[in-house]
Design goal:
alpha/beta, Metallo-beta-lactamase, Chain A, 7-stranded mixed beta sheet, binds nickel (II) ion, binds manganese (II) ion
Length: 226
C-alpha cells in the first residue's frame, strides 16, 4: 500500500490496484502538488461537506466516473449532481473491492456552500477508518479532541493516523497530541494546517509535544509505503 499526502487534508491511497483520494481539495489549495485535471481516482472518500474537503470532487468525478463514498446526506446531494455515490453513516462499515471503509464520529459541522452562496447542510461530519492489506489508516477529518478516540484506538491497531493540528476550526497541536495518546497509532501525520491564515502552525511544535509516539511531518508529495 502506498500512501501520499498532498496538503491540507488530501491523502491518496494506492492499494488493491485502485487509487483512492480522500478530501480532494486541490483548486484553491496553495499547498497541494496535485493538478485536479490530472487526477483520475477510482474512489473519492469524503469526511464532510465543507468546501475545503469536497474540493474538486464534482469536477474529478464527472470526468473520470469515480465512486464517491461519503456521509449520507452529502452522498445524496452529490448524487443529485449526477455523480456515482455510496452513502454511509457513523459506525457503519462496508467492504468494497478496494478495501473496507468505516465512518467514525467527528465533532465539527458539515455543510456545502454553493456558487450562489447557499449553505447546504450535509449531515454529520465524520472521520474515516480505512482497512486494506491488513493495514489500518485513520483519517480524522476535521474534529475537536473527543474521549471516544480512546475507543477507536482500543478497537483498532492503527498504522497511520492523519490528525488535524491547525487549531481554530479543529484540534490544535496540544489537543492533537492528546489525541495521539488516546488513539495509540504506530505513526501520526499532522494535517489541516498552514493552508489559510487562521490555521498557521509549526508542525514541529506538534511533533515535539508528542514524545511517546512517532510523528512524520509530510510535505505535499511525500509518500509512506506500508
Ligand atoms: Ni470542516
Ligand atoms: Mn476543514
Amino acid at each position: 500500500m502506498k500512501i501520499s499526502y498532498h496538503g491540507h487534508s488530501v491523502v491518496k491511497i494506492e492499494t488493491n490496484g485502485k487509487t483512492i483520494l480522500i478530501d480532494p481539495f486541490l483548486t484553491g489549495n496553495g499547498l497541494t502538488d496535485l493538478d485536479p485535471e490530472k487526477e483520475s481516482p477510482d474512489v473519492i472518500l469524503l469526511t464532510h461537506g465543507h468546501n475545503d474537503h469536497v474540493g474538486d470532487t464534482m469536477e474529478i468525478a464527472k470526468r473520470c466516473g469515480a465512486l464517491i463514498v461519503a456521509p449520507n446526506e452529502l452522498a445524496v446531494y452529490l448524487g443529485w449532481q449526477g455523480l456515482n455515490t455510496h452513502g454511509m453513516n457513523i459506525g457503519g462499515a462496508k467492504e468494497f473491492d478496494f478495501g473496507t471503509v468505516k465512518f467514525t464520529k467527528a465533532f465539527h459541522s458539515s455543510s456545502y456552500t454553493t456558487e450562489n452562496n447557499e449553505i447546504i447542510y450535509t449531515g454529520m461530519p465524520t472521520g474515516i477508518l480505512f482497512y486494506a492489506e491488513g493495514k489500518t489508516i485513520y483519517h480524522a477529518g476535521d474534529t475537536s479532541l473527543f474521549g471516544d478516540m480512546e475507543l477507536i484506538g482500543r478497537m483498532n491497531d492503527i498504522d497511520v493516523a492523519f490528525l488535524p493540528i491547525g487549531d481554530n476550526f479543529t484540534m490544535g497541536p496540544s489537543d492533537a497530541a492528546e489525541a495521539v495518546k488516546l488513539l495509540n497509532p504506530k505513526l501520526t501525520v499532522p494535517i489541516h494546517f498552514n493552508t489559510f491564515p487562521p490555521i498557521q502552525q509549526d508542525p514541529m511544535d506538534f511533533r515535539n509535544l508528542v514524545e511517546s509516539h512517532d510523528v512524520k511531518v509530510m510535505e505535499a508529495g511525500d509518500t509512506i509505503q506500508l
